[in-house]
Every structure is written in structure tokens, then in C-alpha cells.
Write a structure and sequence with these properties.
With about 475 residues, this protein is of the alpha+beta class. Helices cover about 40% and strands about 20% of the residues. The protein has three domains: about 100 residues, no CATH class; about 70 residues, no CATH class; about 280 residues, Beta-lactamase (3-Layer(aba) Sandwich), CATH 3.40.710.10. It has 16 helices and 21 strands.
Length: about 475
């Protein structure tokens, strides 16, 4: 009898104790990763909210920034989470739970997923404020016309805002990992930009007090970055500007020849190309046009123009032969020579722009690497080997330290230059420059209505070319 009474007393005592635990959150339960087992509903909510109200510690290099979740409107939706928690608490039933309690069976580990929201827009605004306060973008290099180079800039650092956003987002939803190392872009070596180079070139040209028109096209053949500079009496002018192509037209003619050629070059063809490019003989060039035109030089000139248009070079054409006076046909109208606001009085039968000629040289360069517009526009007509032959021909055009070659010490220059005979109103050089720092295209066309001295034009082009060479090949500090 006493044993029965003791058992009943034990049962009742345990039942009372279990009744108290049944009224609280079951062991092993957590809300959004926050343990709440054994807590009342109110205590569980307070612990949950407190965990997610803890500020995030953001580390920007050596600085610590606290992000209060309220700043970004972070809210825990307890109205969704609490019913789910209560469902876990009551799902086993009172008596089944009491039986587990008597046998001291551990509660099942369960977590109610976090239900929360915040404003991404407010977080982005916060990061903008952090960047405004802590970023140090450094000092960019400055043009130095005295050395035709650049004054080095100072290093800096900037917040990677998008990466920072992606790093903070999961930590806002974590109850414990509340520290974020903000991603920072370290700018240890700031190179001058194309805009800074353009500033240097404008200043450099102004020092020559050149009152004519100069048009320059520059392209970095690795990155594709371009600079187009058009100046008229020292002031910016819109492009493109039509110029007399002079002997630089021999680059399109050479290209047109290879577009029509089949098989290996004969010795006679090699000699014609050499005399046209290296020696700049107009007679040899006319024979190339005749070859392109299948015996008719006029047809050859028309074909070269058609080839340039096929490549998208709408401002480049030749309307006749070079060495036969009067052997011309109707000039063409182009977007560049149709302008009324600016003119270089270009040769009506032989024209181009710095952009067109530079783009063509870039195409030849890209072709040597198996890509670019030439093989795309003329399937099966251009091989890397043939394009390399064109560059070799241009490289053999060694005329002494003038123009682009004169301003590119240490570089290999593949180019074709040209100028008027008498009077000297136009000078040009179209070049591929292979330098230790970069391979690039540089085309320069210069016009002056009144006669200009050859040395005057030469010094200016050399100076401009040297500034560009220094841009790609900065001197060691």
C-alpha cells in the first residue's frame, strides 16, 4: 500500500513539474538559430529580437563601423515564427510528451527558420555614406608637358559597395556571426588615363602654336582603349575630318591586293609591294592597282574603295592612279568630306581619316592573331601569315628618326608616312608601334592652309608620339 502511495505521489509530482515545462518552449527548439528551449513565449521573443538587434561590426581596413539593424529597417516577423514554434511544442501531445519526460528522452532539436525583412535601398544608402567617409581614392597622375610624361599619382582605396552589400546581407540574418570585413579595392599603382593623356597632348600641341588642323587616332591593341583627338587652331573640333591620304593610301591598296591574291607571292609581287611600301614608288603602286583590277588600274582603285567600305571605312577611297597625271575618275562624297564646318581641302581623288586608317591597321594586327574584321569580311582571303607579311613590309619602311618612329625610342614601328611635295600643306604618319609596355596604333594627320616647314611638322609629330610612347612605357621611378 505504501509503495502504491509513493508511486502515486511521484507520478503527481512529476506531472506537476512536466505541466510547468509543457507551458514553455521545448528543449532543443531554436528560433532563427537562437536557442529558446525552456523559455516562456515572451522570453523567447525577447531573446530572438535582442539577438537580431545587435549591431553588426563592419571593419573597413583599420576602422570599425557599427551598423544598427534599425538603420536598414531590419524587422523580425515574430507573428509568423511564433505559431510555428507553438506547433512544435504541441505536436507530440501532452501525454506523449509526459512519457518522454519520465524516461528522460531528450527533446528533438528543431529550428524555426528566420522570417525577417529589411530595405536593400537603405543598406545601399548606408554603404554610400561609408564610402563617402572612409574612401581615399588617391591622387591620379598628372600630365607633365615638360617631360612629355606624367607626375605619379598617390595610391588609395575604395569600398567595393556591391561586394560589401553581398557580404552584409547574410550577416544581418545571422544571430551570432555579426562581424563583416568590408571588401576594399586597394589602388596601389594608379596609371594615367586616356583622358589624362589627351590633356597632355593638347597642351603639347599648343606649345608649338600650331594654327592648322591635327587629327590623331590612338588605340591600345590589348585593351581596346581609344583616344581620338581633333584640334583646329588649338581648339577641339568634332571628327571625323577628311584629309588627303597621300602615301598612306598605300596601306589600303596593299590590303586590297592581299584580298584578291591567291597562293604564295611571286618574286615580282614581292618586289612591287616592297617598292610601294618601303620605297613609296607610285609607279609600283599603280601596278598593284592594275593587278587588283585584273589588268585595269581604274578597276583596281574601285575595288580598293569597295574593300574599304566593306570593312566599314566609309571615309577612305582612291579615285584613280597615282603616277599618271589626269588618270582619275569621279571623286566620292563621304561623311567626312561632306562637312561644311571644317575642311582641309583634301585631295578629291585620295582621302582618308585618322580613325579609318588607324582602324585598318588594328584590323591587320588582329588578323596576325587569327581574328578581327579582315578574315570576317573576307572569309578565306586573309591568313595570319599574310597579315604578318603586311606588317613586315611596313616595318621595313625605315626613313630615319622622323614622325612616329622618331618619337618611339625602343619600339618597333611598322608605318607608312606621307607628305605633300610643294607646297607642304599636309603631313601624315600611320603606324603600328610594338613597344615593351604595349602594342598600339597611332595615326596622325596634319594640315595647314599656309605652307608649313617640314621640320616644324616633324618636331610636333615626334613630340606627340613621344608623349604617347611614355604613356605606355613609363620611366622607372
Amino acid at each position: 500500500m505504501l509503495s502504491l502511495l509513493a508511486a502515486i505521489t511521484f507520478f503527481v509530482a512529476e506531472l506537476v513539474l512536466y505541466s510547468r515545462t509543457f507551458a514553455v518552449m521545448p528543449p532543443g527548439l531554436s528560433l532563427g538559430g537562437v536557442p529558446v528551449g525552456g523559455l516562456t513565449e515572451q522570453q523567447a521573443l525577447e531573446q530572438l529580437v535582442t539577438a537580431y538587434r545587435t549591431p553588426l561590426e563592419l571593419r573597413y581596413r583599420d576602422s570599425v563601423i557599427l551598423l544598427d539593424p534599425d538603420t536598414v529597417g531590419f524587422q523580425v516577423n515574430t507573428g509568423l515564427m511564433l505559431p510555428e514554434a507553438n506547433q512544435y511544442r504541441t505536436s507530440t501531445g501532452f501525454w506523449n510528451g509526459f512519457w518522454d519526460y519520465l524516461w528522460m528522452r531528450p527533446g528533438q532539436v528543431r529550428d524555426v527558420p528566420l522570417r525577417a525583412s529589411y530595405s536593400p535601398e537603405r543598406l545601399r544608402v548606408f554603404l554610400q555614406e561609408v564610402a563617402a567617409r572612409y574612401d581615399d581614392p588617391g591622387i591620379p597622375p598628372r600630365a607633365d608637358v615638360g617631360t612629355l610624361g606624367f607626375v605619379p599619382g598617390e595610391p588609395g582605396h575604395t569600398l567595393d559597395a556591391e561586394a560589401a552589400f553581398n557580404a552584409i546581407d547574410p550577416q544581418l540574418r545571422s544571430p551570432s556571426a555579426r562581424v563583416v570585413e568590408l571588401p576594399v579595392n586597394e589602388q596601389t599603382a594608379i596609371r594615367p588615363s586616356m583622358d589624362t593623356l589627351g590633356e597632355l597632348l593638347r597642351t603639347d600641341v599648343s606649345l608649338f602654336q600650331f594654327d592648322g588642323i591635327i587629327s590623331l587616332y590612338l588605340a591600345d591593341l590589348k585593351t581596346g582603349r581609344e583616344l581620338v583627338l581633333n584640334l583646329s587652331a588649338g581648339k577641339e573640333a568634332p571628327g571625323p575630318i577628311a584629309f588627303s591620304a597621300m602615301s598612306t593610301i598605300k596601306i589600303p591598296i596593299m590590303t586590297g591586293f592581299f584580298a584578291q591574291n591567291e597562293g604564295e607571292l611571286t618574286d615580282d609581287e614581292k618586289l612591287l609591294l616592297q617598292r610601294s611600301i618601303d620605297e613609296s614608288q607610285n609607279t609600283a603602286t599603280d601596278l598593284l592597282l592594275k593587278t587588283i583590277g585584273r589588268g585595269d588600274g581604274f578597276d583596281g582603285a574601285r575595288q580598293v574603295t569597295t574593300d574599304m567600305q566593306r570593312l566599314g571605312l566609309a571615309n577612305t577611297y582612291i579615285s584613280g592612279l597615282l603616277d599618271v597625271q589626269g588618270a582619275v575618275f569621279t571623286p566620292l562624297q563621304t561623311p567626312a568630306n561632306s562637312r561644311a564646318d571644317i575642311t582641309t581641302t583634301p585631295d578629291p581623288y585620295n582621302q582618308t581619316t585618322s580613325e579609318d586608317m588607324g582602324s585598318l591597321l588594328a584590323m591587320i594586327y588582329q588578323c596576325t592573331r587569327g581574328g578581327g574584321a579582315l578574315p570576317a569580311a573576307f572569309p578565306g582571303r586573309f591568313t595570319p601569315r599574310e597579315c604578318q607579311t603586311m606588317i613586315d613590309l611596313l616595318t621595313n619602311n625605315e626613313v630615319g628618326p622622323i614622325f612616329v618612329m622618331g618619337g618611339s625610342p625602343g619600339g618597333v614601328v611598322a608605318h607608312k608616312h606621307g607628305w605633300d611635295r610643294v607646297p607642304l600643306n599636309n603631313v601624315a604618319d600611320a603606324a603600328l608601334v610594338f613597344s615593351p609596355g604595349a602594342d598600339y596604333v597611332l595615326t596622325i594627320y596634319v594640315h595647314r592652309a599656309e605652307t608649313m616647314g617640314f621640320e616644324e611638322a616633324n618636331r610636333m609629330i615626334i613630340s606627340v608620339a613621344r608623349a604617347i610612347y611614355n604613356f605606355f612605357n613609363p620611366a622607372a621611378p
